[in-house]
Amino acid sequence: MLFSLEEVIETISAVGVETFDVRTISCGINILSCADSDVHKCAEKVYEKVVRVARDLVPTARTLEKKFGIPIVNKRISVTPVSLLANAFTEPTAVPIAAAMDKAAKELGVDYIAGFGALVQKGFTRGDQILINSIPDALCTTDRVCSSVNIGSSQAGINMDGVYRMAEIVKEAAERSRDTNGLACAKLVVFCNAVEDNPFIAGSFLGVGEAEAILNVGLSGPGVVRAALERAGNLSFGELSELIKKVSFKITRTGELIGREASRIMGIPFGIIDLSLAPTPAKGDSISDILELMGLERTGCHGTTAALAMLNDAVKKGGMMAATYAGGLSGAFIPVTEDDGMCRAIVDGALNIQKLEAMTCVCSVGLDMVAIPGDTSIDVIAGIIADEAAIGMINHKTTACRLIPVPGMKAGDIVDFGGLLGKGPVMEVGRFSPSVFVRRGGRIPAPVHSMKN
Amino acid sequence: MNNNKEQVVITVLGANNPGILAGITRTIADSNVNVEDVSQKIMQDLFALMMMTDFSSANCSFEEFQNRMQAMADQLRVKVFIQHEDVFRYQHRL
Hints:
The complex is a heterodimer.
Chain A: H1 5-16, E1 21-29, H2 39-53, H3 57-68, E2 72-79, H4 82-86, H5 95-108, E3 112-114, E4 118-119, H6 126-140, E5 145-153, E6 157-159, H7 160-176, E7 188-192, E8 213-220, H8 222-232, H9 237-266, E9 270-277, H10 287-293, H11 304-322, E10 326-332, H12 340-347, H13 353-359, E11 366-373, H14 378-395, E12 399-406, E13 414-416, E14 423-425, H15 435-438, E15 443-444
Helix pairs in contact in A: 2-5, 3-9, 5-6, 6-7, 7-14, 8-9, 8-10, 9-11
Chain B: E1 7-15, H1 20-30, E2 34-43, E3 46-54, H2 62-76, E4 78-84, H3 86-92
């Protein structure tokens, strides 16, 4: 027999018992060909192109789910940053483009459509300003549109005007979506060193260096790693790393298969697989649970950063060999409300936002799905974004903030965003003000790229 | 050698009762799917069966075959998984 019964049962239980799934197949689509000075005409072209190019995405995913017995939880689309198109608009709004994207997503049955964003690490174009000003309206009047803005990079430094403007936008988006606990902010990411081929929302977009259309794959699999660690018992660090690498290889390999097959069926090139461990709110599908199984009493205790660093590195090493092209954000994600274990650690007082920030230094991606008190000032939000961007800038990695200042809620309250976005506690933020610092204006210069200590 | 084979792995798991193998193989035969290899074990009271099959001669679509097998599995009160062999090949073979 080609495979042993044990091997077959291992694959089946990864899905059935350990909640393994392919988190997403994301189809990137170049929409630069839709340029028009009339925003409404441009919107029509965007709708037409997205629906035409991604027509087969959902049916293909369904076929592959049945063929291989592996759930594909989300089907997503990303487009070229819309700010590039907005440069040509006579009317200073990009909201009709968001409406067209939302309509296309619903028509196709995809879960999210991302790329309503801008890259302003060095400064703003007119199109960037139109786009950014349109974000609160766009996110509050659509259901599936996601937005991201890149405000810094290791090459350019940090555009602190961009940081401050985005803090204002986060606050406004939260207020405008008060009746859904600031849900608009769950669809908005502020990046440093954004990547052009990320399949994950809310920060996905098709970079300008990418092809006309591309398929990227993202994975979930914390439950599989957790189950392997549970079975393994007491291991040294070397053995632990080996075990994680093997599991990561297998789950990445499955993503590779799905990506290749989807590419073949749809006739769209397979871009990358994101070597990722993305948690879900389901019990046991948690990065925090893995860290605790590694021997931490609670995630957030001293030693957490080291444990996460090792996990993240082993996931990449294992996944690297399984993938023809690795890319995207690649690493373990630690979104707070999407991870039941992380939420428990906060409720128990083991994890605070400062430790979470330290954890973001060694993992993908940043302060993700962090609910903060609704009365947090714009200055403090700007300070949080700037800190996170600085970590990315200095360490040559992607960092991001997806902060939700939940209107009317205070630290310790529990907020529920529903579905994959999960529910969790509102985290306490620092009490002192960075006002003078964050309002200085201009850019933090690019860092030195040698003498690294 | 048939190069147009479409190899599909069928796995059946459940409590051990008389008639499971008979019911499953009857549905496979009715669908004109060719069984190439069989491995079966009783692990404690758990019935575990794996079959490597060639689906290329089937008289129905893959989805229809899955539905037929699911209906039989429900009748036998076991779980059945019908998956293309590539998923196992990718995970377990270099």
